[in-house]
Amino acid sequence: MTGPGAALCVVGGGWAGIAAAMQGVLDGWSVTLIEMAPRLGGRARHVDHPDLSIDNGQHILIGAYTETLRLMRLAGADPEQLFERRPLELIYPDGSGLRLPAGAPVVAFARGILRAPGWAWSDRIALGRAALSWFLSRFRCDPALTVADLARRLSPRVRGELIEPLCVAALNTPAERASGGVFLRVIRDALFSGPGSADLLLPRRSLSALLPDPAARWLQAAGARVVTGRRVAQLQPDAAGWRVDDEHFDAVVLACSAQEAARLTQAAAPDWSVRTASFDYEPIVTVYLRSLGSRLDRPMTALRSNDRAPAQFVFDHGALGGSPGLFAAVSSGAGEWVAAGLTAAGEATRQQLVAAFPAGTWAEPLTVLRTLSEKRATFRCTPGLVRPGAQVAPGLVAAGDYVDGPYPATLEGAVRSGVAAVSTCDLSMQIPFS
């Protein structure tokens, strides 16, 4: 535990900042959390629209998100109630695709391959050989390889129904540009790290109810100061610590966006600032649609995307305990659709859903309610990408899904970086433990 009275400022109240603040409290810091938005959650939170209660994008978790689940439980949120847990399945409207049964990871993966409907034996054998080679290489590869390179010997069906959807869901980067090394790390932890690690955790409540809102209550009950609606203007070295605007702190965790972190460190750490500001980004488009009286066969259905069909997945909110007849279709790596405009993206998604599902699926005409775009949803996870380190300066540490680490830009990556940042603050300040 840190020495008494050590003041820690966490700048940014997304999932990385929430994790840093909670871990700071656990480690004995006097914590102040500052968030520029009116509520915590960053890019994964509830937003209010007229006559529509939605999130600012559709997110899912998986069973391997152990740190996120730990903090949820610590904050008093019950994952068993908040998620529908299902074995990993990438099933398309026609019933094709891959479904992993419950059980030991290797056995479940093998059984899933053998039972994949519509796959030829050549598809199954080629995927089995590829998976075995990844396993024997300890899920490592040449850093220059893309996911498309890794999958080059697989059939178009396996690439299209398994590899490419997994890649764009996990890395938000198309397979031909995505890092093969990062993808293999995700595959290792998701599919082969233990029973249930690949399970889909589909939210039954808003994203804010999963962690941001319970965490805000937990932090305040623990004596932390939570400030919302305030953008930090300036960060300066100050004696043995840092001055955040007009207030002194012994240490600071920058858990804001990469753009904000780069702005705040221009003077204090110019090299780090330049690197952090240099990311390329991939957008995500989420289209909310309604068809009253309609319900899909499963709460999450995979979709075949192309230059006329944007979405890779559609979620049935009614099947997850939300508004009946409300659906969310997600398009990752959606740069071309952002350029085309949100109206065009929404209409193309509506037409895609109408065409993808059998006649009679939609009890009433499917209509677009809202199309949301997160233009800088995640950094573009390409081979050889050099990400900035967590240590910015003594007593100044960065946290976020963009900080150097083994994972792509995911909620679990953000949470883990937030937890790790507090330990880095301890070490960089050399605060004695008692």
Report on the structure:
This protein has about 425 residues and is of the alpha+beta class. The protein has 3 domains: about 5-65 and about 205-280 and about 385-430, FAD/NAD(P)-binding domain (3-Layer(bba) Sandwich); about 90-190, no CATH class; about 280-380. The chain has helices at about 15-25, 65-75, 80, 105-115, 120-135, 145-150, 155-170, 180-190, 205-210, 210-220, 260-265, 270-275, 335-340, 340-355, 410-430, and strands at about 5-10, 30-35, 45-50, 50-55, 60, 85, 90, 95-100, 200-205, 225-230, 235-240, 240-245, 245-250, 250-255, 280-290, 300, 315, 325-330, 365-380, 390-395, 395-400. Strands 10-2-1-14-21-20 form a 6-stranded mixed β-sheet, with helices on one face. Strands 16-17-18-15-19 form a 5-stranded antiparallel β-sheet. Strands 5-9-6 form a 3-stranded antiparallel β-sheet. A hairpin with a 2-residue loop joins strand 3 and strand 4. The model is unreliable at about 430-434 (pLDDT under 50).
